[in-house]
Each structure stands twice: as structure tokens, then as C-alpha cells.
Write a structure and sequence with these properties.
The chain folds into two domains: about 60 residues, no CATH class; about 90 residues, hypothetical protein PF0899 fold, CATH 3.30.2320.20. It is about 35% helix and about 35% strand. It is built from four helices and eight strands; from the N terminus they run ααββββαβαβββ. The strands form three sheets. It has a four-stranded mixed sheet. A two-stranded antiparallel ribbon has the order 1-2.
Length: about 160
């Protein structure tokens, strides 16, 4: 009867599985015979859904949408810039209250992220100006890695 039971178990609906987990037993008819399975007879596992991360803890199941939209990607890039700029501020010996100007080398992905989130970057780093440039006019330029891309950035103290 193992093959028939296995087939019947694989055809259980989500609700039947949930009821099975809640009650600890599931009754089914196999070849006109009543079979009662308990949770110790089977292993109930969740499989990831493409684009979702699923985790179980007992009767609790949580699914998280891990799809990265353009807006999330841009926000992530902005947060990475904040981190890199703060590190540059620290390495440059700037005071915590020093206002700065930030110039970032132009790249397609970087350009849109800066355009959308320059105010956020400025507020988090005390930058009075956050802009994207084609060329740098001063020599205080560093290379940082953002989203697996090497980008040149200039952070200078306002006078």
C-alpha cells in the first residue's frame, strides 16, 4: 500500500496539510481500507517558491518576497554610498559636524540611484551637495565598490 499512500499524500491540498499538522493525524481511504497517518509517519517540509524565501518553525511558516525591484536596488545603492562616504569622512579626519560636498562618478545605475536618493545621502552624511559628475576637478578622489561596480568618489569638507 506504500505507493498508493505516497500518491495520496502527494495530492493533499494545502488545507488538508494544515489540518494534518494541527491535529497530528490524517485519515484516508486506500483501496477501500481506512488508513490513519500521524505526523510521525511523514515529514512535512516546505519548498521555496521562486522569488520567495520560506522558513518554518513548528506550525509557523513565513514567506518573504526576495524580489529586488529597481527602487529597492537604488535604495540599496544609496545606503552603500552613505556607508562609503561615512568611512571616507572618518579616514579623512573630518569632525562629526563638518559639512561636506560629495561628487560621484557618473554611471547609468549610479546616476538614477543618486538622482532619486541624493537628499537621503546628504542628510545622512551632512553633505550640502551630492552630485554626479563626468570628470573631477580636484585630486581628492577615491575608488569605492558599490553593487560590484568600481566608482570614483570625491568627498571634500566645505569651507
Amino acid at each position: 500500500m506504500m505507493k498508493d499512500i505516497s500518491k495520496a499524500v502527494s495530492e493533499l491540498t494545502r488545507q488538508e496539510i494544515a489540518d494534518f499538522e494541527n491535529t497530528g493525524a490524517h485519515k484516508m481511504m486506500i483501496d477501500s481500507r481506512e488508513v490513519i497517518l500521524t505526523t510521525s509517519d511523514v515529514e512535512i517540509i516546505s519548498e521555496d517558491i521562486p522569488g520567495w524565501q520560506v522558513a518554518n518553525d513548528g506550525k509557523l511558516t513565513v514567506a518573504l518576497d526576495i524580489t529586488v525591484t529597481d527602487e529597492l536596488r537604488y535604495e540599496g545603492i544609496a545606503r552603500e554610498f552613505v556607508n562609503r562616504i561615512q568611512n571616507i569622512r572618518k579616514e579623512s579626519g573630518f569632525d562629526v559636524t563638518d559639512k561636506i560636498t560629495v561628487l560621484i562618478e557618473d554611471h547609468d545605475l549610479i546616476h538614477e540611484a543618486i538622482k532619486r536618493h541624493s537628499a537621503y545621502i546628504g542628510s545622512q552624511t551632512l553633505a550640502t551637495k551630492v552630485d554626479v559628475v563626468k570628470n573631477f576637478t580636484n585630486g581628492n578622489v577615491r575608488e569605492v565598490e558599490i553593487d560590484e561596480m568600481h566608482v570614483r568618489i570625491s568627498v571634500s569638507r566645505n569651507i
